[in-house]
């Protein structure tokens, strides 16, 4: 019996090694197959142009805003200060570095270049990625708040709260997100901004209407996840807490929700990952998130294959990071 017990683990190790090797071979085969398929297409790959969509150095022109003569050029640290005067008024222009296009006594006109300098700037893909992350974080935060309140209202004994929650959930889950974004931007957004304009107040940027549509959309799904998580906790937990003198709200906050949180983490992670990908729909209301930024880059560069592959990888990095963070939270809550 002892000899058999010693042999079986070795067999299991051998089987695992075989299947892991098979997986590695299959993965390599898929990659090679994809590479072979790309060689069969009549397309010139330009991967060397991709870095400029992450970071590039731009040449900035400092132009004259008035007509006049260059009265003086002085150095201030590493910058050049050029003073242009028309006899009555004068303006000064600071040119980083020493790449000047004018000299003292020279006459300049409006729009003439006084000097140039180089400035590093974020590329389209970085700008789009940052906006996607910002929109996703804010939408997830408000989605959790809306979902938690609606989920609790969904199981409430108060008919007003319960029916309101059911109506909200069914309407949001029963209509496409793209339609909701359009309604928020073209209908509700127009009404809200018109009312604010009549009141002499500021206008709400389209970004916030996009965030509102995503947060409310996510809130409906989070509400159902919260409801299912709470109802999965045995009723005896609430009864035991009430028998100890706790109010229903206190028992829910200290007993039920902490236990439900452990169970709803995986579906919440899935919902938030979907929300990050759904943020790509905000491009229809002129928000330059990652997908819209990629589309603009493709239009100007005519490199659809490379840019869309990079776009997919960036989304994968964002969602994978969120997935790893949720797994970390799961381990911490399991240890607690």
TrEMBL record:
InterPro entries: AA_ABC_transptr_permease_3TM, ArtM/GltK/GlnP/TcyL/YhdX-like, MetI-like, MetI-like_sf. The lineage of its organism: Bacteria, Pseudomonadati, Thermodesulfobacteriota, Desulfovibrionia, Desulfovibrionales. Part of the binding-protein-dependent transport system for glutamine; probably responsible for the translocation of the substrate across the membrane. Its main location: membrane. Residues 129-326 form the ABC transmembrane type-1 domain. It comes from Pseudodesulfovibrio hydrargyri. GO terms for molecular function: transmembrane transporter activity. This is Putative glutamine transport system permease protein GlnP. GO terms for biological process: amino acid transport. It is a multi-pass membrane protein. The chain crosses the membrane at residues 21-38, 130-153, 165-187, 207-226, 307-329. It is found in: Cell inner membrane; Cell membrane. One of its GO terms (cellular component) is ATP-binding cassette (ABC) transporter complex. It holds the Pfam family BPD_transp_1. Belongs to the binding-protein-dependent transport system permease family. HisMQ subfamily. Keywords: Amino-acid transport, Cell membrane, Membrane, Transmembrane, Transmembrane helix, Transport.
């Amino acid at each position: 019996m002892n000899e058999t017990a010693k042999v079986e683990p070795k067999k299991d190790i051998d089987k695992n090694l075989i299947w892991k090797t098979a997986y590695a071979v299959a993965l390599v085969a898929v990659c090679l197959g994809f590479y072979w398929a790309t060689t069969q297409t009549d397309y010139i790959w330009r991967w060397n142009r991709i870095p400029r969509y992450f970071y590039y150095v731009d040449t900035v022109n400092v132009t004259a805003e008035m007509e006049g003569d260059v009265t003086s050029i002085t150095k201030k640290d590493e910058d050049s200060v050029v003073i242009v005067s028309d006899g009555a008024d004068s303006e000064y222009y600071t040119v980083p570095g020493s790449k000047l296009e004018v000299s003292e006594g020279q006459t300049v006109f409006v729009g003439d270049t006084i000097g140039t300098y180089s400035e590093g700037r974020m590329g389209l893909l970085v700008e789009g990625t940052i906006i996607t992350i910002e929109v996703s974080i804010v939408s997830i935060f408000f989605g959790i708040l809306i979902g938690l309140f609606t989920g609790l209202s969904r199981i409430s004994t108060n008919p007003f709260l319960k029916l309101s929650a059911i109506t909200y959930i069914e309407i949001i889950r029963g209509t496409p997100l793209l339609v909701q974004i359009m309604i928020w931007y073209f209908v509700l957004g127009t009404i809200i901004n018109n009312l604010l304009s009549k009141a002499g107040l500021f206008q709400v940027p389209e970004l916030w209407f996009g965030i509102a549509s995503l947060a409310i959309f996510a809130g409906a799904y989070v509400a159902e996840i919260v409801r299912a998580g709470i109802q999965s906790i045995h009723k005896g937990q609430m009864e035991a807490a009430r028998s100890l003198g706790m109010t229903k709200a206190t028992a829910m906050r200290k007993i039920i929700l902490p236990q439900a949180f452990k169970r709803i983490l995986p579906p919440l992670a899935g919902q938030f990952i979907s929300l990050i990908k759904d943020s790509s729909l905000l491009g229809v209301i002129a928000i330059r998130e990652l997908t819209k930024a990629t589309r603009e880059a493709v239009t100007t560069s005519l490199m659809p294959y490379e840019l869309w592959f990079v776009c997919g990888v960036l989304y994968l990095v964002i969602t994978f990071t969120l997935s790893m963070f949720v797994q970390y939270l799961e381990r911490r809550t399991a240890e607690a």
